[in-house]
Structure formats: structure tokens, C-alpha cells
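Q&A FORM
Asked by: J.P.
Topic: structure of Transcription factor PRE5-like

PROVIDED:
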Amino acid sequence: MSSRRSRQSTSSSRITDDQIIELVSKLQQLLPEIRDRRSNKASANKVLQETCNYIRSLHREVDDLSERLSQLLSTIDADSPEAGIIRSLIM
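REPLIED BY: S.T.
REPLY: Here is the structure written out as C-alpha cells.
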């Protein structure tokens, strides 16, 4: 009976092809690289690749901005209100 339950819970938690198509479509709408193209058709593989690239790009941008804020923080008085704002942005 235990194996029956595990099969039932596995089959009920599976995602359908239609759900995958819908999720890929939603991702496609969020990605500037794909969203701005004239053709609305992109393969799921392309959408997932672009998603990974976009996330990497966002990580790099966050790292760059954090570095710039850290540099700015090192040039101002540590007790100033501006320093407090910058620290809150970094944390």
C-alpha cells in the first residue's frame, strides 16, 4: 500500500505539458531579449537558455552595484545619514 501511495502522490504532483507551455510563455514575456523580438515563437530550450543568461546578467549587475556602493561608502563619513542609507542598501 505504501508504494501505491507514493505512485499516487507522484502522479498528482506531475506537471502537465500544458502547464510547461504556459510557464515557458510567462518566462518569455519576462525576458527582454526574447520579448522585444518580432516573432513570438521561441523554443522552450531558447527561453530557458535566455532565462539563465538573464539571471547571470542580473547577478553581475547586482555585484557591480554592490561594489560601487561599497566604494562610495568608503569615501564618506561612516556616521553620516548617507552612510546609513548606503549600508541599508548593501545589507
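FOLLOW-UP: The radius of gyration is 22 Å.
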